[in-house]
Amino acid sequence: MPLHPDDHFLYALSSNNAWAGYKSHQNPHFFPKLADGQTPQIRKPFSPLSNSPQANRLPPVWLGCSDSRCPETTILGLQPGDVFVHRNIANIIAPTDINTSAVIEYAVAHLKVKHVVLCGHTSCGGAAAALGDSRVGGVLDTWLAPLRAVRYANKEVLDAMKDERARGTKIAELNVEAGVNVLMANVTVREAIEERGLQVHGCLFEIGCGRIRDLGLGTKGRGGLGLDGQEDVVRGRHAQIVFRGGRGEMSVK
Ligand SMILES: [Zn+2]
C-alpha cells in the first residue's frame, strides 16, 4: 500500500524509496557501481506519453539532467504516461531557452500539472565542467554559462570545500536553487501558483544511493507565501495580509 496516495509528489518520493530499497536488496553493488560512471549500452524505442488533460492522475512535469543515470521514470518507480519530461545538460533553467519554456508552458497552462519538479543530481558532468577552468568547446561553454555564473556567485563557499565530490554536489544544489528561482519568476508558473496552488519543488538525486532529496525550495521556500501549510503575515503600517494556502486576506488594524 503506497504512502501518500493523494499527493503525487510524496507518492513519487515513497515510490522512489521502495525502488531504491528493492534494487539495493537485489544487488548491494548496484548503486555504488553506478556512481562510478556511466556506460549506456541499451537503447529501447521511445514510448509516447499519454498526455490527456482529462486523466485522473495528472502527471508532474520533471525538469532534469540528460545524464543517462537519471531516467526520471525509472528512478521514481513510475511508468510511461506518469511524468511529463524535459531534460537538458546540467538541468539548466534559463528564461530565454525556448525549449524549456515551451515544456513549462504546455505542462502548466495546458496539461494543468499540479507539480513542477526540478531535479539535479550528484556526479553531474556539467557541474564538474562548470567548476573547471578550461573550455569545453563548441556551444557547450555558452550552454554552461549560467552554471558558471552560479559558481562565481558562490566562489567563497565552493573554494572552501576541498573535497571534489562535495563541491560538485554543492554546485548541483546551488544550480537547482537558481533554476527554481527562474521557475518562480515565470509568469505562467506564478499565475498557476496563485490560481490553483501549483507546487514547485527543487530536488537532488543522489546517484550513490538512488534516493531523491527534497531541497525544500520553490513553493515550500521563500518564494511561495503561505504555500507550505504555514501562515505568512506581511504587516504594513495600517493593515496586514495573511497568506494561507496560496491566498492572501487583508485586514485593517
Ligand atoms: Zn548532469
From TrEMBL:
<dbReference type="GO" id="GO:0034599">
    <property type="term" value="P:cellular response to oxidative stress"/>
</dbReference>
<comment type="similarity">
    <text>Belongs to the beta-class carbonic anhydrase family.</text>
</comment>
<dbReference type="GO" id="GO:0071244">
    <property type="term" value="P:cellular response to carbon dioxide"/>
</dbReference>
<dbReference type="InterPro" id="IPR001765">
    <property type="entry name" value="Carbonic_anhydrase"/>
</dbReference>
<protein>
    <recommendedName>
        <fullName>Carbonic anhydrase</fullName>
        <ecNumber>4.2.1.1</ecNumber>
    </recommendedName>
</protein>
<comment type="function">
    <text>Reversible hydration of carbon dioxide.</text>
</comment>
<dbReference type="GO" id="GO:0008270">
    <property type="term" value="F:zinc ion binding"/>
</dbReference>
<dbReference type="GO" id="GO:0004089">
    <property type="term" value="F:carbonate dehydratase activity"/>
</dbReference>
<feature type="binding site">
    <location>
        <position position="124"/>
    </location>
    <ligand>
        <name>Zn(2+)</name>
    </ligand>
</feature>
<keyword id="KW-0479">Metal-binding</keyword>
<dbReference type="GO" id="GO:0015976">
    <property type="term" value="P:carbon utilization"/>
</dbReference>
<dbReference type="InterPro" id="IPR036874">
    <property type="entry name" value="Carbonic_anhydrase_sf"/>
</dbReference>
<keyword id="KW-0456">Lyase</keyword>
<dbReference type="GO" id="GO:0005737">
    <property type="term" value="C:cytoplasm"/>
</dbReference>
<feature type="binding site">
    <location>
        <position position="65"/>
    </location>
    <ligand>
        <name>Zn(2+)</name>
    </ligand>
</feature>
<feature type="binding site">
    <location>
        <position position="121"/>
    </location>
    <ligand>
        <name>Zn(2+)</name>
    </ligand>
</feature>
<feature type="binding site">
    <location>
        <position position="67"/>
    </location>
    <ligand>
        <name>Zn(2+)</name>
    </ligand>
</feature>
<keyword id="KW-0862">Zinc</keyword>
<dbReference type="Pfam" id="PF00484">
    <property type="entry name" value="Pro_CA"/>
</dbReference>
<dbReference type="InterPro" id="IPR015892">
    <property type="entry name" value="Carbonic_anhydrase_CS"/>
</dbReference>
